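Exercise: predict the fold of this chain.
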Amino acid sequence: MADLLEAAREIDGYCRRQGWRHCIIGGMALLRWGEQRMTKDVDLTLLTGFGGEERYIEALLKDFDPLVADALDFALRNRVLPVRTKAGFKADIALGGLPFEEEAVNRATDYAYADGVVLRVCSAEDLVVMSFSEVKRTSTAWRRLRCPPHARTPLTSSPWTSVRR
């Protein structure tokens, strides 16, 4: 776990030195909020906006090894840049630009995981929303779950409004 914390500190520190707005998400964030689970990588949202992502990607590729061919094109197409840290761990850097992502980064706070390892981490509420959208995107069980047409009702507001602080 100490090596993974070092990898997270490496990515977090890099973003801080660049003056970039970001936050740790995924399994490392889950550790902060009390759920012990095995995680093998670092997930981070980097607020890039839309239209200027290349400068962030190019800078990251100067200091981190890409894990995919044509990493710049891949990152622009998928809005995520998978890289390997110097500590040898995978890091998925999500290119944030949506209003929710900006709000999540704004709400993120520093948390000390260990002596000398302070990371900027998303809030528990934002982690729940991000986790739900990831499950929805990747889960075959979720894709099989369908509501019958007669039970569908249009949403008049976002189901996540109660998640806001």
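Check your answer against the key: The chain is about 45% helix and 20% strand.
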